[in-house]
Amino acid sequence: MEKKKIIVFDKRWEGHIPTYHKLICKNLLELGYEVYSYSPNPKDVKEFINNSVEVDVTTKVSYFSTRVEAPKNNDTPSQDNIFEKPQKKKSITFKEKIIHLLKKNKSFKTYYEVLLNWRELNTILLKNHNPKDCLVFIPYLDLDFYSPFLKKLNIEKEFEFQWLSILFNNKPYRNPKLSEIIFRGNYEIFKSKNCRALFVLDEFVIEKIKKTIGNKIYFMPDITDLESNSNYTDNYLKEIRENKKEGKKIVLLCGVINEKKNIKLFIETIKDSKEKDYLFVIAGITNEYYWNKKVNYQYFQNFVEKNTNSVLVKLDGLKDGIEYNSYVVESDCIFVNYKNFYGSSNTLTKSSFFKKPVIVGKGYLLEDRIKKWKIGEIMFKDTTSELLDKIETATSKKYNSREFQDYFQNHTEQILKNIINQSLRQKG
Description:
alpha/beta
């Protein structure tokens, strides 16, 4: 029997996770399901839903917070979410000492923490819901609910609900150097009788994964908020528009700024472009938390402090929707050559919708997409001279408008709705 109540659960609220959560809730409501949204920002979700769906549908959604208030005794958890609770001092048993030693091993630590997350989630949801009439949708599985060492019996023992999820990182199927013995079996949790569906954003590996887990796998379009307003402005956009009037081309890097965005290559290219009529724009958010190495963060900070006329840096956030899209609209090309990046980027969804070419790196999914849909340029050497050449091409070349349109048609909300509907109607 099809279950009409669906819990959408997210522990994190950064990057594009809020967009996925809100759009999944919206489409589930439009499909006629009763939705229970668990997120770190229920107010944000509620505001979006109230502005996006018919009034009578909003009565079929409930909102829960995955944050907790700091304890009054100032024994503050390390993160303000329901998985972190203040620990009371107690004597340590021999078993706990062994577990403590094992947890120093990174692989075991990940496995152990993920297993505890499933257990905690089960406990939390049982307070308000019955596993017999609810499904759980986890839009972001990767960091908190997935470990390559988890087995289906682990999940079935710890989590009573039927569930479906999105797995963003399909690295084992993208990197042939990874051991098949270790990694090809690491999708076993998706063989669980309680797993209704797995969604992946890499259309080129679905057939390979299907050999591991069967037909419960689906392609997930890389959805994003595409709302725009030509009248929207801020001080940074005003400066960008002034530079465009002067004939400068706008090269955009946006989102969470850190090493993964290949920021050093981008900065060194800015330094080498003094004779060019470009304005480089770095727009998004960053702090030391987002960087793997403090020295790299300091390198970026030093660059920002010595800001030049050829770069504009906005680091007070970039909210998805009208604000984010306004920067995409004003750009002439977008830098998406991320370091060792195996996954999808919904920046390509935005760029295809607004018909802005992208520059990506060699290897993996983004290169495959640019080869199939000619909506940008591919870098092969990662040098400043090559990047300048690619920028020159991307900002002067006339691209086929149909290619942008064809790419975008694979990542629409309607595709999302159809896929979710199909997966939920299968027998489970």
